[in-house]
## 1
Amino acid sequence: METLQTQPTSDLSAVTDFYIESVEQSDRAIQMRWSDGIDTTYHSIWLRDNCPSAFHPQTGERCFDLLSVSQNIHPLSISLDNGTLIIEWSEQGHVSCFKQSWLREFCYSGELGKDHSSSYQSWGSEFINQIPEQSQQEIMTSDRALYEWMSALNTNGIAIINGMPDDSEAVVHTAKRIDYLRQTNFGMTFDVISEKDPINMAYTSLSLPLHTDLPNQEVPPGYQFLHFLSNESVGGESTFVDALKVLEELREDQPEYFRLLSEYAIPFRYHDQDHDIREHHRVINLNNFGNIVEIKYNAHIADIFDLPGEVMYDYYIAYRQLMGRLKDARYKIELKLAAGEMVVFDNRRVLHGRNAFDENVGKRHLRGCYVDRSEFKSRLRILGKQLAQKNDPGI
Ligand code: OGA
Ligand code: ZN
């Protein structure tokens, strides 16, 4: 064991107003006490793997080969110099320098460990008056407006764009302000019109019960854009439910049903003359921290369940319970969107549907496309960084 004491230093960056007060070395890790009394631990193997020299100076990608050192790598000496932690390693004669601001930012232990709670805010039917909205012109011309609208969409899973040009390509131009589109078997874009010879229920005038699109894909599309080019039929209102809200309540009230739906996978299948696309998925998807990150739900393309015999009946009970809850009016938003409006929602969180419409009265035509979640989140980060650099007071 070795303890170092230190004094305030000049590297008091934007990330922290605190400095390392003392450093102590144990078997596999280094413990630090900070000036605000917080204790943190960094494993030697982690520090060596993340030495600033481990990353390519231009691409920022890691070029260090972790297997070039042993798992027992440890410091021979540790020192602090003007806010920099300097470690001389037991292998390869390597020396690493870590800024204390960096150590604070990337700390993974104790009180300073990352907050893994969800940044989503779930909603029920009351949200109808709070759906974030922005004009297409602002979205197209202002990065700040785009950033704020996308932030609200990220948190709430749904947002509207109004003032869309009466142009069938407008959905593409607008979605591309975020990033490239996700192509599917229905094309780069799709037209939702009642057809004589439909290949899917959306292309009829029937009602569409709440669903997520394409759970039959290995990764269903992320954000869905639906531009209303016309909606003059009788009926054809859009319906939305935040599955996050429904699932949070299911988890609370009926944990056993929640468990079945989040542990067992069911088959989904879309097929027509040219395609037969199938995947098994869990209806409820959690991340490693137990946060609900996705629902895959579409009664039309759920295929023939092939669960183990001893689970089948119980699963049906849980699945029916979820179906029933999704119909509860407490959760539902119903809107008649008009020509010039576009609704955008996270297809992996917010269920959507529509009421039946009369195809003989007025016209109903929607044009849609998708942008995936990774691209959406990336754009949000980049916009945030760019606007912060410009020192935009709005960020
Ligand atoms: C769809 C769909 C909704 C609508 O095309 O997947 O859900 O309002 N359409 O027609
Ligand atoms: Zn749909």
## 2
Amino acid sequence: MTSATTDLDSTAGSVPATYSPDAAFIASANADGALYERAASDQLGFWADQARRLQWDQPWTQVLDWSDAPVAKWFIDGKLNVAYNCVDRHVIDGHGEQVAIHWEGEPGDSRDITYSELLAEVSRAANYLTELGMRAGDRVAIYMPMVPEAIVSMLACARLGLTHSVVFAGFSPTALRQRVDDAEARLVITTDGQWRRGAAAPLKAAVDEALDGAPSSVEHVLVVRRTNIDVLWTEGRDLWWHDTVTDASPDHQAQGFDAEHPLFILYTSGTTGKPKGILHTTGGYLTQASYTHHNVFDHKAGHDVYWCTADIGWVTGHSYIVYGPLSNRATQVVYEGTPNSPDEHRHFEIIEKYGVTIYYTAPTLVRTFMKWGRQIPDAHNLSSLRLLGSVGEPINPEAWRWYRDVIGGNRTPIVDTWWQTETGAIMISPLPGVTATKPGAAMAPLPGISAKIVDDEGTELDSGRSGLLVLDQPWPSMLRGIWNDMDRFRETYWDRFAAAGWYFAGDGAKLDTDGDLWILGRVDDVMNVSGHRISTAEVESALVGHAGVAEAAVVGASDDTTGQAIVAFVILTADTAASGRLQVARNSADNTGAALIAELKAEVSREISPIARPREIHIVPELPKTRSGKIMRRLLRDVAEGRELGDTSTLVDPKVFETIARG
Ligand code: WTA
């Protein structure tokens, strides 16, 4: 145990206990302390060692070229095929009969897919996509629920050098269209429908709606049958997977691609309404995804049963369901549905059924489990678990302890992993056989990674002081840009500390007096709702898209379960206000005001996704602005969280708040 740290703030918690790995775990751990020393003494040599865990068709001649910063090139002249590394080589090495995926469908159907079967499926898909005329460098949008064909599609793209853009199947047709257009996708792969809490919901219909109207770059829509729900069919454009891919040859020869060949684009929210297409490439990305999965999760091929509960629509699904685990020959669970379908026992039943040993999820789900009560996990034998992981948002110490005690039987190490869509792979995390962890702390940059905590001027801060998290050295899986917008790439991440050449992550952080790192959350206008990044600007633009709204301001207010929840303040147009709906809302004489608010919430769900639906909408007469016209979100957050108002002196009209608070 280390000595008590007395200066931790409320977000970080104040209990100083540390949890050391036990002797047996240490003895068999993939990573030991020497990894830090090796990386510190020769960083590029260290990354070359990690890259050698992969199979290269052509070796690199140089590890890093940073001369064109901030666009890095890693493993210059190296060539490799990502799908070959994730599938073929395991079959060639004699592990074809090992299960790659224990797939668990929401309605209770399940499928085990071995590495040989996965290879045949990926090869069929690659052969058919080639027959369709898709060529290396073309973009493919993948808009699918968690079915095996989604993973097969991603790997088939990787195999052919097609750049995939996975769009979360919960996103709206508008959001899909925006992403398809920005990447100029030639193909969309989707399913007829998706299972949601026992019911089949349409999905292809959303693709039809997205592609209706103005002509798009999309030539074909390839459809996997999942729910048998009725679909409309556009002859010539639409193709059934079972009529095409299924009949293609299961043999396909993979070719190597340049280490810097684009592997995928993944859109994420920034501080404006327009999502950013984060671009990742091949060799460096796979090196770091594979290295982190091996060491942070202490994964042992052929022994562990690994389960990451993310969706392939997010970066966690890319790096820790598809590329990291498969490159390491994992046997993993992939689950299609929600944790409470058909009831709250589902995840624990799955852990028992497959003997899951490594479980990686988000704090919001841990807090949901806490709310449901420990009698639910206690009804199951969870003794197979030996490691737990957390990702997506800060995990509060109380949830951390509950996770370890109740899910982990007070045995398992917990790895709290900090990273971003932009970083591609885990950056800051304990190593489970090395680090004595503190509940709520991400602890330290991984071997090979360097981070600093600085103030606005870039001065490094003493322990105990909160500041901005920066990454001061390039890393292999770093983003290579924003698709179609390299200016925005520089502005967003590199301009803030341009002189030093550091990457600005957008998160606040601090070191405690032991030198351990705590992530404090976003410092920009990006909200984190259940681990999903949503920008305030995106929700504001959806709200002002409603004819009744003149102006909107959105903040993330803290929420016990979802981390943050969306709270919106809207000013109605004069017409709407005059129509009496506002007056009625205030008086609550009937539910017309409530109806308007419900309409606005539905509008946001429709425009973006149900995950962006505001928890509360307040109709207000005015919004607090500075003299330069900037909305003071900090003050709105005070209102939303029921706090005393902070400094209002810079407002044009400090009295605005009396009306807002009363509203
Ligand atoms: C937050 C998800 C605290 C952070 C992999 C970051 C975290 C954003 C953690 C990226 C963590 C992620 N502790 N905060 N362990 N992991 N975050 O792009 O604010 O969806 O900037 O990537 O999530 O979200 P993204």
